[in-house]
Design a protein that fits this description.
Blueprint lengths: L2 E5 L16 E5 L2 H13 L2 E15 L18 E16 L7 E9 L9 E8 L15 E7 L2 H4 L5 H15 L14 E9 L15 E7 L5 H15 L4 E9 L4 H7 L3 E6 L10 E7 L2 H9 L6 E11 L6 E12 L2 E8 L8 E3 L4 E4 L3 E6 L3 H11 L9 E12 L6 E13 L8 E2 L2 H5 L4 H11 L1
Helix pairs in contact: 6-7
Length: about 450
Amino acid sequence: RFGTLHSLPCPLGGGGKIKTKIAGTLVVDDLAVFRKVARAVVTEDELHVELYTILAVELRGADHGICRTDVQTCKTKGTLRIPDVPFAKSVVLRGARSFGIEFRDMLVLDQNSTEPAGDALITIDVRVNNPSSFVMRDLGAVQVDVYTDKSGCARKEFKGPREGKSAAKECLQRLATHDTDARPTPEHSLGVKFAEVQTETDFWLARSPDNDWFRVKGKLAVPPREHDLVSTADVFNHFLTSRDTPLIARVAAVPSHPFYEAAATGLALRVGLPGMGPGDHDIIQKVYIDLNIPVATVTLLNPFNGGSLEQYMHIALRNPLDAELYVHGLAARILYNDVHVGTVSLPELNEHEAIVLPPSATFVTARQYPVLLHAANVADLLKLLKQISPPPVGEGSAMINLDARIAARVGGVEPTLVYRQSNVTCLLESSLLGVKLHENFVAEESGNDSSSDYLEEGASS
């Protein structure tokens, strides 16, 4: 027993089998049991509720408006009250089946901050389908914490974007089944808190298996611990490579009503966050290597050189996000025709070297960054040099891949973005002739803008 329903008088018609409504007020007698029932309403396909009471039945005659043609009730008059009638009824109610929550179109938007890529606003479009028997009105501003999922979906190591996307979807479908023995509960799968969001103040849930989309807003909320930042980086890595990320939405508060607050607080539900749509979401677009091809060729063929070249390069970058991206570290393996031919290692950039990418911006860095070109077989590196040589010797450019680790800050959070930068264009620095170079604003704020002028002159020469 979890509550008592105090109902209004309920007419049962003039006899026979009828449909009616019992309207009244439910008083919760046992909060702990009621919370279990509320969880069942959310998670189960259906639930059985037993109604029992001792009531009085009042029979009314035709003079009280009860009369059906050709039946004996039309001949009756007056009323007859029958006390102490036992009433027992089992009612089958449809459950919400975990609401089938859907996420889409996550945006991270800059707010006023005293540091580059500081605190940001996060918005997510959400749909909550409600196949249950319940209409949930006046929910108000529901506060929700979004966590990573530390169950099998989140721990699985995906080999690449294509395999990862398929595996993540399969895992989400498996966890969405209603075989409770085959899946860990969301409450026991809470990983790292990723974001804090809330609905609008007029939020409510209609009784429909196909509700409209709505938007929640909040902020990234990741504790500054290494383990938590690694888990958060997985969300960004999946997002940038168009892969689904298993998450858990946990109701933090429903302050509008104590009834909903008691029933829903702590409720955890699984949800998948889709990655960015199809397209090129790489941060590194092109590299311009400061290289003299004849000198480099002679150096590589020198048996005492070790088959390596220490050079410098400019980088053409693009920010695929809608918030400022602050890059303070970069490491990458350079692959040409799937062969390792070089390394970029910039574990920590100081404030003058760090790269600040405005939202959705593309530019070439004015500052040069070191690159080490080397290969197990010098012939592979010589093929690269020949291809990037100007015509008629070469094609003037080559396509390379970068297995990159990018230490970044976005929205006040500092994830390490680990994903392959595919089909990056590799050119010689001489290709920068006439290209406007961009100095990051940290250097500009310090009043040092000479590097941009110097590099433009160097490119012209």
